[in-house]
Specification:
The chain has 201 residues and is an alpha+beta fold. It has one domain. The chain is 27% helix and 25% strand. It contains one helix and eight strands, in the order H-E-E-E-E-E-E-E-E. The strands form two sheets. It has a five-stranded antiparallel beta sheet, with helices on one face. The longest helix has 54 residues, at 9-62. It is elongated, with a radius of gyration of 28 Å.
Length: 201
């Protein structure tokens, strides 16, 4: 009897099916790896952005001073809005700085003093979105305030706050870089001592 060589149709189909399965598994693994890498990168960037924002705000608050027209260093102190004057450009003329929460984003408004005597026309305010994906509950204040008697355990000053009593400013918020994924929300907070309003000065 002559010998038979080659593969049967069934064998070819089985080989193709196995190869297709391997390609599918490898493809899914590669896609999942890329997605995971993107999520990790996004979370790291979000943490970095939040850390920069809170450090920048702390430095500006710490160095606040009277406005260019002699107004008190703090203009308004709410739970989601804080307005103050600070010479962040180091040119001798304080700017009006406004941090405020709108929806899930933190914004920073900057108004330059104009004229003599100096004024801060709010119509010229430049507003920038400095941080997104804030998931802090609406019942939790972004800004809290403490007077000179604070030793670390007292509750923040009740709203409405008397701005002349403020000596320390607390900033706290929670950020979720991607709420649709399994990202873990990250909390950020700091307590800022206002250098030019120290009670012993």
């Amino acid at each position: 009897m002559p010998s038979r060589s080659g593969f049967s149709l069934l064998e070819i189909i089985i080989v193709i099916a196995v190869a297709a399965t391997i390609v599918l598994v490898v493809g899914n693994f590669s896609n999942n790896t890329v997605a995971l890498q993107g999520l990790v990168t996004q979370e790291l960037q979000s943490k970095s952005d939040a850390a920069i924002v809170i450090q920048t705000a702390a430095n500006e608050i710490r160095g606040m001073s009277q406005s260019a027209n002699g107004a008190y260093p703090i203009a308004a102190a709410g739970t989601t809005t804080f307005i103050f004057y600070s010479d962040i450009n180091k040119n001798g003329t304080p700017l009006r700085i406004r941090y405020f929460l709108a929806s899930s984003s933190l914004y920073k408004g900057v108004t330059v003093a104009t004229g003599s005597p100096a004024t801060y026309p709010t119509s010229t305010e430049t507003v920038a979105d400095v941080l997104d994906n804030i998931v802090t509950p609406s019942s939790t204040p972004i800004f809290t305030y403490y007077d000179s008697s604070y030793t670390g355990t007292q509750q923040p000053l009740a709203q409405p706050v008397t701005v002349s009593a403020i000596r320390l400013v607390g900033i706290q918020f929670t950020v979720n870089s991607n709420a649709s994924k399994t990202s873990e929300p990250q909390g950020f907070s700091t307590l800022v001592d206002i250098r030019n309003l120290k009670s012993n000065q």
